[in-house]
Hints:
The chain has 130 residues and is mainly alpha-helical. It has one domain (9-128). The protein has six helices and two strands. Strand 1 and strand 2 form a beta hairpin. Helix 1 (15-28) runs antiparallel to helix 3 (50-60), helix 1 crosses helix 6 and helix 4 (78-98) runs antiparallel to helix 6 (112-128). The radius of gyration is 14 Å and the shape is globular. InterPro entries: DUF7945. Pfam families: DUF7945 (PF25656). It comes from Rhodanobacter humi. This is CdiI immunity protein domain-containing protein.
Amino acid sequence: MANRIEHGDMDITAPRKRLEMISLLDELSDKSKQDHLWLMHEDYPSSSGIDDVFHFFFDDTDLNKDVDSEIGRILKDQVEAVVISNVCNALDQLFQKLGDADSSVYMSDPAWLSLMHLAQAALIVLRDSE
């Protein structure tokens, strides 16, 4: 099928969504990218921010509600599901605390560094499986 990318024994049926997820994790794990893209909007109109992150993980996919349902669609296996679930849980905790706030508010919260580390760990797992 033209819209499938094979990864070992697992087909990913939504490769563009997977690439979007990897791109967002890359931003979440890199303070410099957050500063340039989220705060200074240097890539306007393609700039993203915390809103884009929440929309992707909470609205556009089932990663926050039922991460296992995304295995085979944008995730390869249970290992990827676990690291993405960790990121979603950290995002959810921050959202419960901060609500609908700007990227700068999220980035200045003490828990932000922990979220960045979780995103970095997830990114490593996802890139290692490519």
